Amino acid sequence: MLRVLWFPVLLGCVTAGSEPSDKSNIHSRAGQDVTLSCRFQLSSDFVLNRLRIHWHVFRDEEGSVVHSYYDGADRLQDQEVEFKGRTKLLLQELSKGVASLNLTQLRPSDSGEYRCIIVNSQDVVIGSVILHVSAPYDPPEITLLSWEEGEMTLQCKSRGGYPKAEITWHDGNGNQLNQSEPTELRRSSEGVFEVQSRLAVTGPEDSAFCCSLIHAPFNQNLSVCERVTALMRENKTEAESSGRSIAWIFAIAGAVVTVVVGVGVYMYRRRRRSAQKATPVSYTAEDDVRLQTGYYAAREQHGEETDVLLEREHGAPREHYSEEDEVSLEHEAEGKGKSLQDFLVHLGLERHQSTKLELNDILAINPEMLEESNPRTLGEIPWHFLRKVMALNGMARRTRLVPSAPGDHGISKHGEEPFAVLPPRSPAPSVCVNPLDVLCAVLCCSDTFLRQEILLKMSMCQFALPLLLPALDTPTCTLLLWAMRDIVRNWRPLSLRESRGFREENLVLTSVPTFSFVRLGRCSLSKSKILNKVLSPPQQQHDFFIHRDMESGNVPRDIAEGLVEISWYFPGGRESSDPFQEPIAVINLRGDIECHPLQFSFLAEVSSAVFIFAEHISERKYKLLSSLQDSRTKFYLILNPRSTITRKTQGFLNELAPLLKLTQSHVLVKDNTANDSDFVTRLQDTLAHLTKQPQRAVSVEDMAVTARERGFQVDEDCEECAEARKRADEIAGEIGDVVEYKGRALTLQGVPCKRLAEVERELCQLKHQGETPTEIYKSQLRQELLGLRTQQHGRDLTGGMGTFKASLEQLTPVETHYFLKWMKFRLDHIARANLSKLRAEYKETYRTPGHSPEQLAKLDELIAASSLGVEHFMRELGQFYEAEQSVCKDSEIAQSQRRFAHLPGIAADLMLSGFALEIIDGDASHVPLQWVTGVLTELHAKLGGRSRLLVLSVLGVQSTGKSTLLNSMFGLQLAVSSGRCTRGAFMTLIKVAEKFQQELGCDFILVIDAEGLRAPQLAKLEDSYEHDNKLATLVIGLSDITIVNMAMENTSEMKDILQIVVHAFLRMKEIGHKPNCQFVYQNVSDVSAHEQNMRDRNHFLEHLNEMTKAAARMEKLNRDLTFSDIMKYDPEKHNWYIPGLWQGVPPMAPVSLGYSESVSELKKYLLDFMRSRTPNRNPRDIPQFTKWVKNLWNAVKHENFIFSFRNSLVAEAYNQLSLRYSEWEWELRKEMHLWVCDQETVIQNQPPHELPDAGNLKQEAQEKVQQGEEKILFCLQRYFESGARNRHLIEKYREDFIRSTKSLTTELERYSAIKCEKAILIKKSWHKIDNIQVEYKRMTEKKVVSLLEDCKRRKLKLDKKELEVEFETMWKEAVSELKLIRLKKRNVSQDLEFQLRKDLENRGSTVRWKLQEAGNLCSYRIKSFSFDNEYLDLTCFRDMRESFTQEYRHKAEELAHSLMHKCQHYIEEKVSSKVNYDKTYGRELLRMINERLQQKDVPNLHTNACFEVDLKLHILGEAACAFQEMHENFIKENDPQERLEKLKPQYLSTFINHYLEKDPCQQRARDFCELCLKPALAEHVNKRLGIRIVDDLSESEKANTYSSRASFQFSVLQKLLDEMDFDNYKKYINDYESFVQAAIWRDISDHYGNRESIDALEAKILSDIIETVRGALEMATDGGTSRVSDFVAKVCSLLQKDLVLPKDSLETILFQFTASADTSQFSADIQDSLSELEQNLASEFKAVNIEEKLSKLQVKPQDELFKRVFGCGKQCPFCGVPCEAESAAHTEHFAPVHWPRGLRRCRDHITKILDYSLCSSDVVSNASFSNSDTKGKKVPFRDYRQHYSDWRIQPDPSPEASDYWKFVFKEFRDQFARQYDTEPAHLPEDWGKITKEQALESIKAVYNMQ
User: For the stretch 1589-1611, what's the b/e string if a residue is b when 16 or more beta carbons lie within 10 angstroms of its beta carbon?
Assistant: First the structure.
């Protein structure tokens, strides 16, 4: 249907839009062929079958279809008639990107603008070609129109040309004459013009005149000249010829008249046959307009045609005409219509004659649903009917095409000849189709299940149902028994009026008196119209049967002749308004009984009475009626004469009376004087009188028996249906009492299933725990659960269940469909009977005086349990599957030995077939999670992974029409019968058409129908509100869109349901899920409802806000919320007012048209809403939906939903964002590390007076960091706007990551500023030393120069050895003469001790005494610190038990350990910097200690001042030793004499070379590389190697481990499990930070242990910087410097941002370097030495072990990785598990799984037994805790946030989640007891069954690593 709707939309866009820009003009001649071309761009995925091409021509702003091509073929049904057979699309050109259309036999009328519209993939191309078609004119002719006394009028005429031409006149002398009138144009049907011009002149008879025709397109200039005398002779000849012709005409006129009468009838028949043959196959809406204006004549109804013809031709009424002629004419008028094949082609259904339409084809969501409109082409009619009838729309039978908008049809334009505007007429039958024909065609093209659904919907619309289909595609008629099987009707018979009871029965099983109405011959009285009035209650007129006065009812039937329809009347128990007090059936035969004798005989046999409509009775009719004399059926005649009953008819009636036992009451006359209302009343009275007499009652099943006897087909008579029925009957045969059968056959349901649900809920809520320890109680519950499952697994399938299971396994898909339908029919029938019996018993008991409430309560329970449907059998199979899965989970049972493992696959197939799957067990209020998960998993597999879902649900009060709303909206088959209210929740899958999937963003819509809230049977229960709340939470949580359905008349129930719904939406908002909500108010019929309720909607929003606040209080949310905070709500768009379902009073009321249309509008809005949110939504597929179901159900089972919700999808999305954020964070960190390295290099290369300002560097760093911050925030924003999966679920964490970014910014700004300030400080501190060293070097160099000159003056030539001796003597003398200033050595210990005393100077006498007793600071070391109980001040807690003392001690020990570890790291960092000691180091250490001791948790430890003093002594003692050694090393490294001694070899080399006059260039180049470049290159590598290592690890096999904290945790825990080493676990638990650092160090060491990887990194860095050096050398050489010193200065300048070249070595190399040295040679020598230098450095790098190498790096990779994976370091206050929140600035700490508390020393203070309880279990239990934070008071675990508000401890997401730590505790129970000096824990029994494999699986599930 897409192409049908798409075409006019696109065409409209082209017409109304701007003109196509690409236009070309083509000129051609009439009769020739032309090719019109349009180019388009070929897409990469070009497929010819997906290409759509439409050519249209636009003339005078009106468009016409020239040619269409789509779906791989030409589609010419909409082609304009004038182009038929003249167009051809050149397919071979399409692959070249050219759409060429060949148009043959051109006509002038073809001129116009041709537009091509090409749709290729997502591209639309519109091109334009303007075609000009010309035709030459015939030579002009001159005629004399009038002549009188010299005045004459001449006319010049020419025809056959196009476009228009001009005519001019001349006299005989060539003088131009003026025309008396303008040139006239007339357009012929061929599109060519006739031009004519008139000239009025005076002159003599021999005058000559000429006319000329000028036609520019053909360069025609045609002239003709005539004399007046010649023209006058021609006129005279023509007049004589005309007179002779008139005489001949009169001579033959008489003969013609005599023949006409004889052949009148024959000619009439010829005309009718010709008209039928000329009827076009298909018409568009534009054709309808032309037809109405008179191009075709509408056929009239058969009887009227015949009457008119007879009266016109014979002037007498029909009764006076001979019977033979009447029969001939009647049969001719009735005709045979089209064949079925022709008619299906007419409607475009031909392919469905063999490939039947299925229900899923009709229900599929497609774009046409967004454009619900009346049909515009014949091909749309069947689909319009199906869509409307599925939507219960009373206009479904509309088959008339929608005409075009009224225009100026018939008005002349541009000189065309006008035509008359005809008066409006009825639509031509070729444009309309009889609705009955459409119904027959659709039924012939539908499979049996779609037929059933069509008739069910028709029944709800109160349409008459087809009982017998004509023999269209079958040898005989077909009785539709199966198609009616699903219809159930209820009514109130006369016997139940007083008791106000009712009967409910399947329609085909209902036996009622049946009355048939037929027609004999022609009858002007509409039988169907009369029947509609008969069946309609007063003031409730309804068209059950289609009649001639309905839209398209007068259209002749093509295939529906012989159709038999049936309708029923069911009373409502209202005597005044029910025309019949008992139900009756009315049958209507379409057509004359003479033409359909088989159908008539069938009706005569099954009917209680047959009513025959006729106008008169002829001899032939008499013979037919007299043949019925042996029938048992009563016959009634309804005569409708044209005036009065003729004597002939009266005579035949008298003869028939004894034969058919007719009395006066058996003949009803409706003549022209009779009132329709009176006649209908008489007919109703007759029928009512018949029903009061004993009548034969038959059901449709009884009719089927008769039909088979008569050779008719019955639609149930097929092998598949028979086999399915046999199996269903076998099961149903065992069922007597429903409740008894359910207890006997469905053994896994009832009490066992409810107990299972209770145990599962108790596992989560622990309400009945009592004094039993939590884990013991949970273990008992798990054992009970397993025991219940084992009992279930041990049961066998009963006979009925065995047959049911075997049927699903053995039957074919079609047979399975039949089987489930039969099961539904049989079970519903049995359940109805049981329910009716119980209701009657309940009513009788209630009315009995003195009845006991217990009796009523028992009956109430029986009524509630009396429903039985297919869902109960499927539920039983699901329980068997779950029991098998639970029992066999840990056993080694082969898949082939499992009996139920394949059942989810069968259920998945059923879902694909349209059956609903129960997702919530309505009896036990339980989700069978394993069953639902298994089915959904199989469903995903069967769909090949294409399972994107959009979930829509409905909630509302019970019996307010929720299921009916869904049935109407989507054509579903949800149970809505009385007594079958939905229990639990069911989900149904609706496929989205493939062409609509991308636009809608999903492959399927999953519809969830839930049981009603505030159900009466639950109202008495204490937890009914909680039940409804959980149901609403689960349903809304699963949904993307929720419809809240409310009955407008019950305001109290509205408030109740709104409170429940708002509460559920609040819960969803808190877990990050925001479904859309639509509020539907039913039973609002006023058209002004939306406008009138504006104020009510505002009040409604106020109520919603109040309810939101109340719900927030119930959920213990400490913030003020409004309804708009929890979901997007627009009162104008999200409120719908829907009229009541029935139009009138049931049971005879049809579905209200207002209801159907309002529901359709809601459906369109929902689809449009889905489509609009597609770009911003990442739809869930079935695996994600399955996870969501698990997480929601687990949370719903807990009392505190929001706090208990653990969503694996959220965790997965959170981890994905964390992974991305980690990448963004490292990019910024890396960028700042490199920036700091560059700045340090620049600072070290600058002279002191040119050092950059620290403030400027700080500002530059801030700007750079802020740019990085903006980039991260942009990436974060883009991530949330992207298509990342489930990003909406983690919206609440966005602020955490933003805060983390801010925190990172602050950290990097501080880091950068400190690094730069430190570099400047170091440079300044070295400046003083460098100045002293410069002076020493200057004096030494003078000595060297003096010695050189002295040696050169000697006559004897000295050899090298002698020179060395001379130099050594000179060196000693020079050094002895220097007054060396040595650096002052400081006592670091004294300095730190002074700072410590100053820090503690105001702390009292105890502190002073402690410091005086302290002794030497260096005697204190961190490792020597041991905790003393004297550190605790517990004087006020003397009565507290020892366990609290131990708790305080352990906490204080942990504090000291963590603080010392932090200070130790600071000390090591300062020592590794190799700078001199600074007194600020001690102050910084004291600041760190004081800052930590002043935090709010430290005072609660009750430590005294001694603890603080000893802690500071040990930390500063450690620092004193380390800083003293660092200080001494610095002095040694910077001693002036030592620095001079290092330069001695260079001076000696220079001295010898100069003396021997050797070329120093090459040697000095080597020295430059060795002494200057080498240390600089090594330092460069060390600065960047750490960054490269982090990058390398991020791309290695370790990448996943360090991608996020969750991944790191999983990796660590997996490795621990593999190693199973107690010491490792002990360190992990008790010293997590050190363990993580060691693990990272071990990973780096292992990864780079083979040296190849790290060598490659070093080689890459070294290679890059050497290339930079080479480039600097080349640039300096090209600079043209002549002096080596300038050259070296240039090189240093170029490398100052990359390398720090040692100044001492550089100056020594340049010492005594001759100015004439060749700089190019020096540069070349350096270049030559670089390769050797690179090799030497690489060798030296390899010689350093990995530990030493990592310790020297400026950016330490282990620290960077530690920051990434360690987290905040906070630990659970109960079990000590570390926080695993990914973002650095999170507001709540949490961990996915918690430890048994005994792992952290927790024990019973009396028995000393280790505690094995889990805080994740205790927080939902009745357990309490007391510790130092509660000051010994017991606090319920449920209220732990009163003391630890920053921790979020959630229940385990599954019973297996904690298996890992249970297993660890079990394995090392004794070791932990010995370690902590306690007694081993007495673990629950089921802990001992946990295996290593199960432990691993548990953390895989927890960390989403499966």
Answer: bbebbbeeebeebbbbbbbbbbb
Do 1878 and 1810 touch, CB atoms closer than 8 A?
yes
Tokens of 1583: 């600065």
Question: Which two structure tokens, joined as six digits, stand for 1373?
Answer: 């003398």
Q: Name the one residue in this structure whose structure tokens are 């530059």.
A: 1260
Q: Which residues pair with 1423 in a beta bridge?
A: none
Mean pLDDT of 1255-1284: 86
DSSP string, 798-860: -HHHHHHHHHHHHS-HHHHHHHHHHHHHHHHHHHHHHHHHHHHHHHHHHHSTT--HHHHHHHH
* Strand 176-177 versus strand 166-171 pairing type: antiparallel
For residue range 407-461, list pLDDT tens digits in order.
Answer: 443 333 333 333 333 344 444 444 689 999 999 999 999 999 999 999 999 999 9
Q: Report residue 1392: phi and psi, to 5°.
A: -70, -35
1803 DSSP assignment: B
**Helix 813-847 to helix 448-460 angle, to the nearest 10 degrees?**
30
Amino acid in the structure at residue 1451: K
User: Across the beta sheet with 34-39, what order do the strands follow?
Assistant: 34-39, 98-103, 87-89
Confidence of residue 1503 (pLDDT cuts 50, 70, 90): confident
In terms of DSSP bridges, do strands 503-506 and 488-491 run parallel, antiparallel, or are they unpaired?
antiparallel
Least confident of 750-754, 928-932, 1003-1007: 750-754
Q: What does each C-alpha distance from 719 to 1164, 1174, 1656, 1728 come to in angstroms?
A: 41, 46, 77, 96
Q: Which amino acid is at 137?
A: Y
Burial class (CB in 10 A: 0-12, 13-18, 19+), 1355: exposed
Instruction: List beta partners, residue 311.
Output: none
CA 532 – CA 530 distance, rounded (Å): 5
Output the six-digit token pair for 1757: 């990779």
CA distance 1514 to 1501: 20
Average pLDDT, the chain: 80
Q: Which residues of 166-193 are buried (b: 16+ CB within 10 A; e: fewer)?
A: ebbbbbeeeeebeeeeebbbebeeebbb
Per-residue model confidence (pLDDT) at position 1329? 58
d(CA 1451, CA 1501): 7
Taking CA atoms, 410 is separated from 406, 1679, 1872, in Å, by 11, 92, 103
For the ranges 143-152, 864-873, 1092-1101, the maximum mean pLDDT occurs at 864-873
**Residue 949 contacts residue 988 (beta carbons within 8 Å):** no
For 1836, the 3-state DSSP assignment is: strand
Q: What are the residues facing 1138 on neighbouring strands? A: 1082
Task: For 1235-1298, give the DSSP string.
Answer: HHHHHHHHHHHS-GGGPPPHHHHHHHHHHHHHHHHHHHHHHHHHHHHTT-TTGGGGGGGHHHHH
Q: Which of 132-136, 366-370, 1209-1213 has the highest mean pLDDT?
A: 132-136
Please state, as a whole number, how many other Cβ atoms lie within 10 Å of the Cβ of residue 290.
16
Residue 1609 has pLDDT above 60, yes or no: yes
Q: Among residues 69, 72, 70, which one has the least CA distance to residue 87?
A: 69
Rounded CA gap, 1533 and 800, in Å? 96
Can you read off the two tokens belonging to residue 1046?
């409310």
Find where tokens 């280790």 sit.
1810
CA distance 368 to 347: 18
Compute, in degrees rounded to 10, the torsion defined by CA atoms 171, 172, 175, 178.
Answer: 10
Over 985-1042, what HEC string results?
Answer: EEEEEEEECHHHHHHHCCCEEEEEEECCECCHHHHCCCCHHHHHHHHHHHHHHHCCEE
Rounded to an integer, what distance in angstroms lies between the CA atom of residue 650 and that of residue 633? 23
* Confidence (pTM): 0.70
Where are the strands (E) in 858-948, listed by range? 917-920
